[in-house]
Design goal:
With 907 residues, the protein is mostly helical. It has 35 helices and eight strands. β3 and β4 form a beta hairpin.
């Protein structure tokens, strides 16, 4: 225990005092107590904390003493010390050594001398953040008098703990107190403790020459108590009316500083300010000075009222409570200053200091000493006004915006408050991006969660950004990445059922430890903070895409959509149409889904579709649309692709409805191509058979011409849909998917792909008129097929009857009989004539069909030419490449002015 006692701080400090003064332990009790108070205070010299500057001063001091070898040794030792991390506060150690190397018996003009350590001047303010301010030269304070006051209160005086009390005048402090340096005896005093270093910093009497040696002072007690300071004094000669003394105003002002009404200075509710009653006799200068000082109390009340009203409001949230805590911290430092001033005032009252002396508290001195606290309180009050009605990230944005000022001291104060306010936000953020957890009870974080959303809509609807809560020091891109990181983690856990711990997904995870860490991180938003967000974003997104592609075959399903729902698997689609033709030609009400499903499986086994993954083939199915009266199987048939689990996040219900619309359009266009193929085959097969019927040459020629027009139209439309729409859009989608950095990029690219297809396939609301014309063209093709089938059916029947008649005639002639009788010949001629009479009707029907078809195509071309989409304009050129329709319709001939206008708009 003895060994431990010898190493205790008190024993070491007492030994240091003995070594410095050269006295025994019994004789340094006063110096020891004073040293304990100095060490317990937040002493901070006002000189710049420059380690290099202090080391250079030490070397210069050694060179002045002609100790060149010691200077070189010191330089070498200092260099070695810098390379080691043993000491964190090397500047403080060097500054102490520099102060101790001076002779305390010689006056020194250098700031921060040894005497200054034990005799501090009055501080200008107390701060919770580092702030240095040089006191004006007009405050002449006598150090010998301070030593007398120090000897009087040495045994009981405490410390205020203000962080910036080490403030000197520009020319440095005066000589050191002789009572501390020479060891003169100090009179023990039994007064209660009242204050801090401010009491030590102020002189007792009004002039330097008025210092009383501690040995000659009368003992303090009831019998010799000095008279109290008078509250009133007489005005100048010739004016007998009494006015308020400055000492009474000082006492009132100290109460007002705390928001308490004084005897003469009270709060005026209508004007919302502290005022002195106009009836109180007081000169204008003192009244004006008091009003300026009273503003400090008004500012204090404003800040205090805000903190009191918000501190107990739990709905204010963690960010708001941190803001209130920072304001409380600033007010606490302000109260420390007030306690120092009150202690000094009490010391003056107890010692009976004369009014108007150099050491007394006056309004002018208070005006100077409270200059910096007033600026700080003004900043806090303005900040309180600006932050009214705000919470969470919005409150942090308000604090951050208020820190954009050119005043370095105000900026330091706001940065300190911002570090406290942003600390909860940073905790929210780290917990979200590293664990995927969101515990935002009071809705302060900029990521919002909707607990009513089901799992299948987790990615799209459950999590969103509260744009009003995004702090201004976080960009929208950073906020979006933060949202995606946490959303990806929750998607992996809840939808993909991936149980990989977040620690294995992200190599490092660190949470903020203190508001200081938050402040340092937010000062480097484009560096450390951005790198943390980017690292978490890239790692989490990459892991999620790997899980979707490897475990759930996202890209394979995307290609399956292209092959089956967008008719990319040509052999399968053609064979499926061949198998479905008999079924779909029937009425829609007579179809059964299980029959169509069996046909689908047959088409899969007979084509290259059989080599696809079973996981894909089992999702392919048949779907029958809603039946309307008169519909055939072609109108209600559709392929379907079942999606569930994580891939349903990409292929949502809206996306599948788009796929269904596109499939129906493509299926109908494919059916037109299939019909025209059948029409062409019928024409080729029947052309030779009907050569023996020359009366049909005209109507057959009309059929061939109309069929050629339709084939050209459908082939150009198929080329446009297949290559210019589907293939180009698919190539863009595939490139974007390969380069996607997160799931949102894939979803966005897929949505753009579907929107492009919907728009260019004339399925959007803007192309409704074009789509109606195109459907009318399809209807004319079906009607033409029916008309040609009717023509060929009647022509073949007539041909068969004629061949049969000729065969009977030839057979009878071979038997030696007349070929036909007159009655039979008349009957045959009558039937042939009846057939010939139907040909003009067939021709008129075909001419009418051709007229309707060409009119629809001309209107379709006109709409294409006036479209804003250049690809549709080019389609109109291909459909009428030889200007066949333009010659028939003057509306298709654009004027020269319109052509020039279109060219200029394209340029």
């Amino acid at each position: 225990m003895a060994a431990l006692d010898q190493k205790s701080p008190n024993v070491l400090l007492q030994s240091l005092c003995c070594r410095i003064t050269g006295k025994s332990e019994a004789d340094v009790a006063h110096q020891f107590q004073y040293a304990v108070r100095v060490i317990g205070s937040n002493y901070a010299p006002t000189i710049e904390r420059d380690e290099f500057l202090v080391s250079e001063k030490i070397k210069k001091e050694l060179l002045k003493q002609r100790r060149e070898a010691d200077a070189a040794l010191f330089s070498e030792l200092h260099r070695k010390l810098q390379t080691q991390g043993v000491l964190k506060h090397r500047w403080s150690i060097l500054y102490l050594l520099l102060s101790l190397c001076e002779d305390p018996r010689k006056p020194s003009s250098r700031v921060g001398s040894y005497g200054a350590v034990f005799a501090q001047a009055l501080p200008c303010d107390a701060h919770s953040t580092p702030f240095y301010y040089a006191r004006p030269q007009s405050l002449s304070l006598s150090y010998p008098e301070r030593s007398v006051l120090a000897a009087h209160n040495a045994s009981t005086m405490g410390t205020s703990g203000i962080s910036s009390l080490g403030v000197y005048p520009v020319n440095g402090p005066g000589p050191s107190p002789q009572s501390l340096l020479t060891g003169s005896g100090a009179q023990p005093v039994t007064d209660p403790a009242r204050g801090s270093r401010l009491a030590w910093a102020l002189p007792v009497s009004g002039s330097p020459s008025g210092a009383v040696p501690p040995t000659s002072r009368p003992p303090v007690g009831p019998a010799s108590a000095p008279p109290a300071r008078p509250l009133h004094r007489q005005r100048r000669d010739g004016d007998g009316s009494a006015e308020i003394s400055e000492a009474a105003l000082v006492r009132d002002i100290l109460y007002v500083f705390q928001g308490i009404d004084g005897k003469f200075i009270k709060m005026c509710a209508p004007e919302n300010c502290y005022k002195i009653d106009s009836k109180v006799p007081l000169c204008k200068s003192l009244r004006d000075t008091s009003s300026r000082l009273a503003e400090l109390g008004w500012l204090h009340n404003k800040v205090r009222k805000y903190t009191d009203s918000r501190s107990l409001d739990r709905a204010f949230g963690l960010v708001g409570q941190s803001f209130c805590a920072s304001l409380h911290q600033e007010l606490k430092e302000y109260y420390r200053l007030l306690s120092v001033l009150h202690a000094q005032l009490q010391v003056e009252d107890d010692q009976g200091v004369n009014v108007g002396g150099d050491s007394t508290l006056t309004l002018r001195r208070l005006l100077v000493w409270t200059y910096d606290p007033k600026i700080r309180l003004k900043t806090l009050a303005a900040l309180v006004d600006y932050c009214q009605g705000r919470k969470g990230g919005e409150l942090a944005s308000a604090v951050h915006a208020y820190g954009k000022t050119g005043d370095p001291h105000m900026r330091a104060l706001v940065q300190h408050i911002l570090g406290l306010v942003s600390h909860p936000i940073l905790n929210f953020l780290y917990r979200w991006i590293y664990d995927g957890e969101l515990e935002d009870t009071y809705h302060e974080f900029f990521v919002a969660s909707d607990p009513t959303v089901k799992t299948d809509r987790l990615w799209h609807d459950k999590y969103s950004l509260r744009k009003s809560m995004i702090p201004s020091f976080i960009t929208m891109d950073q906020a979006r990445k933060v949202l995606l990181i946490g959303k990806s983690i929750n998607f992996l856990h809840q939808v993909c059922h991936d149980r990989t711990p977040p620690g294995k997904i992200l190599p490092t995870s660190k949470s903020t430890d203190s508001p200081k860490d938050a402040a340092e991180l937010f000062t480097d938003l484009e560096g450390a903070f951005q790198s943390k967000i980017d690292a978490a974003y890239f790692e989490t997104s990459k892991y999620l895409l790997d899980v979707l592609n490897k475990n759930y075959q996202l890209l394979d399903h995307l290609q399956a959509m292209r092959r089956y729902l967008l008719l990319g698997q040509g052999d399968f689609i053609r064979h499926l149409m061949d198998l479905l033709k008999p079924e779909l030609a029937r009425a829609a009400t007579t179809l059964y889904q299980h029959n169509l499903t069996g046909i689908l499986e047959t088409a899969v086994r007979a084509t290259n579709a059989q080599f696809d993954s079973p996981e894909i083939l089992k999702r392919l199915d048949v779907r029958l649309l809603e039946v309307s009266p008169g519909d055939t199987g072609w109108d209600v048939f559709s392929l379907d692709y079942h999606v569930d689990g994580p891939i349903a996040t990409v292929f949502t219900r809206e996306c599948m409805s788009h796929y269904l619309r596109v499939f129906n359009f493509l299926w109908r266009a494919k059916r037109m191509e299939y019909i025209l193929t059948d029409i062409w085959k019928s024409q080729m097969c029947n052309a030779k058979l009907l050569k023996s019927m020359p009366e049909l040459s005209g109507v057959l020629h009309q059929c061939h011409v109309l069929a050629s027009e339709m084939v050209h139209f459908i082939h150009q439309m198929q080329y446009y849909i297949t290559f210019e729409v589907l293939e180009c859009s698919w190539d863009e989608l595939w490139n974007k998917v390969q380069q996607a950095q997160d799931l949102d990029h894939i979803i966005a690219a897929h949505d753009v792909f579907l929107d492009t297809i919907i728009s260019r396939c004339l399925l959007d609301s803007n192309s409704r008129s074009l789509l109606n014309q195109l459907r009318a063209v399809f209807d004319q093709i079906i009607e033409f097929q029916n008309a040609q089938d009717t023509l060929y059916r009647s022509a073949l029947e007539e041909l068969q009857l004629r061949v049969q008649y000729e065969d009977n005639k030839r057979q009878r002639e071979q038997e030696g009989e007349w070929g036909v009788t007159a009655e039979q010949e008349a009957t045959e001629n009558k039937r042939v004539q009846e057939f010939k009479d139907t040909i003009p009707k067939m021709c008129s029907q075909l001419r009418l069909l051709t007229h309707f078809y060409q009119g629809i195509v001309q209107e379709f071309l006109r709409l294409l030419m006036t479209s804003s989409d250049e690809s549709l304009q080019f389609l109109s050129f291909r459909l009428d490449f030889n200007e066949h329709y333009k010659a028939r319709d003057p509306r298709l001939r654009p004027s020269l002015g319109a052509t020039r206008g279109r060219r200029s708009s394209n340029i």
